[in-house]
Amino acid sequence: MVYDFENETDLPEVRLGVFLDVASDVHRADKIRVECTQNNFIWECLTPVKIETGKKKYSGYSNFVMPENKTFPAGKYLVWYTDSNGNEESTVINVSITEGASAFTVSQAVEFMTQNNGKESIAVSDVNSVLLFYGEKKDIRNIDDIWNRYPSGESYRIVWTRNNGKEIFILPVVLKNPVQESEAEENNSEEKFTAENNSAEENSEAQNNEKNGKNEIEEEKADAEKESTEQPADYSSSNEGAQSQMSGERNDNVRRSESE
Fold first, then answer.
1. CA nearest 64: which of 2, 6, 3, 17?
2. Strands (E), 111-162
């Protein structure tokens, strides 16, 4: 059984992993089918993983999962292996389940493995999650030793195993440069803050322009009203001057008439 911890707080994802020692060419592995005799659930993998370690050849899959709200029962599972020529072989495996393991936290999983002869290993991967190294952690002096040995490594995971690999606890991913994530979040936050400020400044400028435009219109209207009220006064003044001039001319005519 595989217990995969994504982070420090959530419960692990529980999976069934099945790998068979293949006597023939491992690259000819075509299909693996698993059936649980307890509930008759059947899983089928059409792209099994092929592994060669020295003289050993394995074919299998480590991601068989139960439907939601279902759990793997302990007991016998039937396994069928089919190669590319259609040849099929079968075997029976016994799956043991540690009671309560599916509800372990990371710290409880480590404590359990430490107290039950668990073996601690480390898996180093590159940026594309390609495995670069897998081996016992005791062979690694410290974390810097990992990155010195594998410069292209970007993350690692601690893997605890017991019962000859029949029970596996995979701890959360540890990044080589975890600061980058927080820096990226800070940069995004800063960009968002700057964009909001720019937007606020643009809105403020637009409001000021609109306000100035209204003021200019009001000033123009005021000037126009002022001109319209001043025009009658000028007109009246000029009329008075004309009337005075005409009156003077009439008086002169009267005087001339009298003298004549």
1. 17
2. 119-126, 131-136, 153-162
Q: Residue 72, exposed/middle/buried by CB under 10 A (0-12, 13-18, 19+)?
A: buried
Q: Quick one: DSSP state of residue 71?
A: -
In tens, the pLDDT along 200-216 reads 566 666 566 565 655 56
One-letter identity of residue 124: V
The pair of structure tokens assigned to 145 is: 């030793």
Distances, alpha carbon 169 to alpha carbons 11, 118, 161, in Å: 12, 10, 6
* CA 230 to each of CA 121, 221, 237, 243: distance values in angstroms, whole numbers, following the listed order: 99, 14, 11, 20
Q: Which long-range contacts (CB under 8 A, 24 or more apart) does 109-118 make?
A: 109/3, 109/5, 109/12, 109/160, 109/169, 109/171, 110/160, 110/169, 110/171, 112/169, 113/160, 113/162, 113/169, 116/162, 117/162, 118/160, 118/161, 118/162, 118/169
| pTM > 0.85 | no
| Contact in structure between 116 and 162 (CB atoms under 8 Å) | yes
Helix (H, G, I), strand (E, B) or coil at 174: strand
Angstrom distances, CA of residue 166 to CA of 53, 128, 162, 191, 246: 18, 27, 6, 49, 129
pLDDT digits (tens, 9 = 90+) for 69-88: 889 999 999 999 888 888 88
SS3 assignment, position 11: coil
**Residue 170, Cβ neighbours under 10 Å: how many?**
22
Helix (H, G, I), strand (E, B) or coil at 37: coil
**Rounded distance, CA 30 to CA 48, Å?**
7
Q: Which residues share a beta bridge with 240? A: none
Q: How far, in Å, CA of 260 to CA of 257, rounded? A: 5
